[in-house]
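Hey,
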Amino acid sequence: MEKKYYLGEFEETVLLVTASQNGEAYGLSITKVIEEELGRSVNMSSVHTALYRLEEKGFVKSDLGGASDRRGGRRKRIFQITSMGKAALMEAKTQRQYLWSKLPDYLFQGGDS
């Protein structure tokens, strides 16, 4: 199984959340989903670091959104997944499904042993 794209576990999570937000993803919105829906403690700076890494890899692209009074006139950076990002997610999904298919059935039947 040839691996074309490399996604770390946290990068994959951030990329999945970004894709799920249909071109409206930004640091805080991604952070909230990871914390509230996935129950994982994360700070916004780690989300931004992952987003910038994903952008360097070509998996997401970003543009500045409009300014708002709530943000003190500052504009937020909006991220959306690219076709390369979609391919990376599909590869990660395929690899995970392959690995799950290799697990023996008895592993999840009863007890801890």
